[in-house]
Amino acid sequence: MKDFRPFELRRSLQIWNLSLAIFSGVGALITGKAIFQEVLNHGLTESYCKKGDFWHGLSGYWTFLFCYSKILELGDTFFIVLRKKPLIFLHWYHHIATLNYAFLTYIDGTAYNPYIIFINFFVHSIMYFYYFLAACKIRVPPIVSQIITTLQISQFIITTLILCHVGYLILIGYPCEVTALSYFYCLFMEISYVYLFAKLFHESYVKNGGKKFKQN
Asked: What is the DSSP-derived secondary structure letter of residue 83?
């Protein structure tokens, strides 16, 4: 794009972000309900140590859609490039790492993955709707972007806590349906996300008195 003017793509962005917001919202409702049923039927620990019924039926189908949606979400990067916006490391690293993780754990049938899928759907439904409003030039209070970043950090902290408990259970001999490759990949990924998103939060909303936050 060095020799080209940036594309505006406002209408395309509106359709793109609203579509992903609706898709993520529906996914959150379906997978959230399925997790709730797992907890009711088998208990909290079993819900992320055993595969259960989540991987079958409607929630299983949306798990499949979740994986392939990570390919579609690479479209975010194309919009950034075509509009000549800053493409930061966190953006492409997050997309690539999550895409690889989604397919790896879908093949393995990682037991705790339903929680990652549900929380990701939930956070993305809010995030993409915020992007949709921004593409429509609708002014949203700056604190909303801060809340979204906080939700993203919370998402990764919750997942890390689940991983820590799963690791403890495995060490004491409790059977959890998790492969070593999926577990350690996810652990590294989630810890790196906590660090990178916390760093983004600090640079955007704390550093220099939250100058960037106030400018938005």
From this structure: T
- The neighbour count for residue 144, using CB atoms within 10 Å, is 14
Please measure the distance between the N-terminal and C-terminal CA atoms of the chain and give it in whole angstroms: 26
Q: Could you tell me the pTM of the whole model? A: 0.92
**Helices 180-205 and 89-108 meet at what angle, rounded to 10?**
160
DSSP string, 99-164: HHHHHHHHHHT-TTHHHHHHHHHHHHHHHHHHHHHHHTT----THHHHHHHHHHHHHHHHHHHHHH
Quote the distance between the C-alpha of residue 119 and its chain's center.
7
Residue 210 CB contacts under 8 Å (≥ 6 apart), including other chains:
204
Positions marked catalytic: 94
Burial of residue 124 (number of CB atoms within 10 Å: 0-12, 13-18, 19+): buried
pLDDT given for residue 123 in this prediction: 97
Report yes or no: 126 and 173 within 8 Å, Cβ to Cβ.
no
